[in-house]
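TA notes, week 10

Several of you asked for a full example with nothing omitted. So below is the full record: structure tokens for the whole chain, then the designed sequence directly under it. When grading your own attempts, check the secondary structure regions first.
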């Protein structure tokens, strides 16, 4: 199982140094989400995207800072890091966010641990409101556990994926969960278990994200 230091190293290799104030309060589950964010950044670069790390609200403070609890994309209480992705040609810009709410099919807001969405939609939401799920390209529900995932988490993900219902939606975990995998597969849902830095599973998931970006570029 990946250690905290493994996650931090993997994040900082792909992004930039983490801010001390974030690093001091981030739990392993928070760092796992940040690691998945970093894999999405790497996948975008591999597909020819120019990735820029930004903060909202704009801040000159050093280091990468992510949420450690869910929040609204328009919140200005604290400054958090997100990424913009610009592909060559007339391809609309994308953004990657961590821990923001997205409005589902029912217009109920749901937390997305990691979400990739259209920048125009994010700009609109920053003026007040939650991004619409119809503008989401990909999202990941991240679970960092020291024991196998319980079946209830799989059932919960089925509900979340039905609510988002757009783009690529995946359950990601560092641990195993045979029953969860069986249920999600039966319902045609994507999952990736036992994901950790420098592993074959990491390569597989990053490739899946690259496919998402490849498909987005030709829409």
């Amino acid at each position: 199982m990946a250690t905290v230091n493994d996650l931090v190293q993997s994040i900082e290799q792909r992004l930039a140094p983490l801010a001390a104030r974030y690093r001091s309060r981030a739990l392993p589950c928070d760092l796992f989400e940040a690691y998945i964010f970093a894999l999405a950044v790497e996948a975008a670069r591999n597909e020819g995207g120019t990735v820029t790390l930004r903060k909202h609200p704009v801040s000159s403070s050093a280091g990468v800072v992510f949420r450690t609890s869910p929040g609204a994309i328009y919140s200005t209480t604290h400054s958090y890091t997100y990424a913009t992705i610009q592909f060559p040609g007339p391809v609309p810009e994308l953004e990657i966010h961590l821990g923001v709410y997205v409005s589902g099919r029912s217009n109920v807001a749901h937390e997305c641990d990691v979400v990739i969405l259209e920048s125009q939609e994010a700009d609109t939401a920053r003026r007040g409101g939650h991004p619409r799920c119809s503008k989401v390209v990909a999202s990941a529900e991240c679970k960092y556990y020291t024991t196998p995932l319980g079946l209830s988490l799989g059932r919960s993900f089925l509900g979340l994926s039905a609510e988002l219902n757009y783009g690529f939606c995946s359950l990601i975990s560092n641990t195993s969960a045979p029953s969860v995998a069986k249920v999600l597969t039966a319902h045609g849902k994507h999952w990736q278990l036992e994901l950790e830095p420098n592993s074959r599973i990491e390569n597989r998931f990053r490739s899946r994200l690259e496919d998402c970006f490849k498909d987005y570029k030709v829409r």
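The mean pLDDT is 97. Use that as a sanity check on your answer.
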